[in-house]
Design goal:
UDP-N-acetylmuramoyl-L-alanine:D-glutamate ligase, 6-stranded mixed β-sheet, Protein-Tyrosine Phosphatase, Chain A, alpha/beta, 450 residues
Length: 450
């Protein structure tokens, strides 16, 4: 365990996926653990801690307990400006992110992927390629299970991680063997003093601990990344990819062929059979296949993986961006717990499409998330009374609909540039649809028809 020799008491701030994962990992290795959440905390997460007999609190922070910690593991959603963080800093207690904490328990090969857009697809795509090659791996981080939870569950050959700027802000020794930097566009600037350069610096932290034995795969078409690399002393080997120009080293696109040249070894593959469409997905495929090539995966396996990867359908699936509004299909969320994860991941004001066949749902665990993240609710079902009753006081705008076309049309009118429109029903689908897949497909068709 690197850097944990004199650590006995660990406090985890934030009762979410990353917080629960960090707490479970800490307990597994014999640390005295306490979890503190200033909000309501999700009941699913609280239950997970109860099952492990881990002490926790919600609805506020007991500073006397927190300041007894030797180390604090902070949820990425908690900004450094809040009072509890200031007091911990004043007390001289080290604060790290969950990915930093988890990395101290493993010597396994880490592949970390970040970017303002596309990181979920590239993370999933990379995981798909490695699985097709028969490698032992986990895929997680900012998607799916937390890194800490995966480390706690057992060993793996490779850890493929989606990492956000918020997670990277809290690293100290986190060192991926392969780092992937997809793009950097202005995002989350409220967390970075409204200074783009601070956000850029945060993203660039992915490479800060790499050495000459490691690799940084980066988008050579992104001027922000190119300039940021020039300004920094990056020790890892730079591996560019480009849709725009031919490269002697790295990965480029020419005549619908992806060509990868590494250490005088060149492979070329047609994009004609790439199942995820669009120029941005070609770039995503290039990033994933370059990662696979660095790991010595055969060309035939990479090619077959490119043909068989279907994206991440019905699970926080980015459908389209229309008038700077992102439409997201999470139709697979047929219960409150799944929708909790979806709403938790929303980083922009969200118009939420919810409803269907209520299975006796307890919506109370969603209240704090809805209050913070949802600007308007579109009810979609034959009977929306439970939704109206549960959330009527949480948002200013709530509209009832009984068809997907109507729901999407209303969401379009309620949203504005910079928003998300999220279909995450929290209910079964069989009042208006055959199943959740049918519901998701109808959502995508309605969005495309706008």
């Amino acid at each position: 365990m690197k850097g944990l020799e004199n650590i006995h008491k660990i406090v985890v701030l934030g009762l979410g996926r990353s917080g629960v994962g960090a707490a479970v990992l800490a307990q597994k290795h014999g640390f005295d653990v306490f979890v503190s959440d200033g909000g309501g905390g999700g009941s699913a997460f609280a239950k997970a801690l109860q099952e492990k007999d881990i002490s926790y609190e919600t609805g506020g922070h007991s500073m006397d307990k927190i300041l007894q910690a030797d180390l604090v593991v902070k949820s990425p959603g908690i900004p450094d400006t809040v009072e509890v963080i200031k007091k911990i800093h004043e007390a001289g207690i080290q604060i790290v992110s969950e990915i930093e904490f988890a990395s101290r328990f493993t010597e396994e090969t880490l592949i970390a992927i970040t970017g303002s857009n596309g990181k979920t697809t590239v993370t999933s795509f990379t995981g798909h390629m490695l699985r097709e090659a028969g490698l032992e791996l986990t895929v997680g981080g900012n998607i799916g299970e937390s890194f800490a939870a995966q480390v706690a569950e057992g060993s793996a050959q490779y850890r493929v991680l989606e990492v956000s700027s918020f997670q990277l802000d809290g690293i100290d020794t986190f060192k991926p063997h392969i780092a992937v930097l997809l793009n950097i566009t202005p995002d989350h600037l409220d967390r970075y003093d409204y200074k783009f350069e601070n956000y850029i610096a945060s993203k660039m932290r992915i490479a800060m601990n790499q050495d000459e034995n490691d690799y940084l795969i980066y988008n050579a078409d992104d001027p922000v990344i190119v300039e940021a690399i020039k300004k920094r002393k990056i020790k890892s080997r730079l591996v560019p990819f480009s849709l725009e120009r031919k490269l002697d080293y790295g990965c480029y696109l020419e005549d619908n062929n992806i060509t990868i040249t590494l250490d005088n070894n060149t492979i070329s593959m047609s994009t004609d059979h790439l199942t995820i469409k669009g120029r941005h997905n070609t770039a995503n495929a290039m990033a994933a296949s370059t990662t696979a090539k660095l790991l010595q995966i055969r060309k035939e396996t990479i090619r077959q993986s490119m043909q068989s990867f279907q994206g991440v359908e019905h699970r926080l699936e980015n459908v389209l961006k229309i008038n700077k509004v992102q439409y997201i299909n999470d139709s697979k969320a047929t219960n409150v717990n799944a929708t909790y994860f979806a709403l938790e991941s929303m980083e922009q004001p969200t118009v939420w499409i919810v409803g269907g066949v209520d299975k006796g749902n307890d919506y109370s665990e969603l209240y704090s998330l809805v209050n913070r993240k949802v600007k308007a609710i579109v009810c979609l079902g034959t009977d929306n009374s439970r939704i109206v009753e549960a959330f009527g006081n949480c948002v200013e705008q709530m509209v009832e609909t009984s068809s997907m076309e109507d729901a999407v049309r209303v969401a379009y009118k309620l949203s504005e540039a910079g928003d998300n429109v999220l279909l995450s029903p929290a209910c079964a689908s069989f009042d208006l649809f055959e199943n959740y897949e049918d519901r998701g497909r109808q959502f995508k068709n309605a969005v495309r028809g706008l």
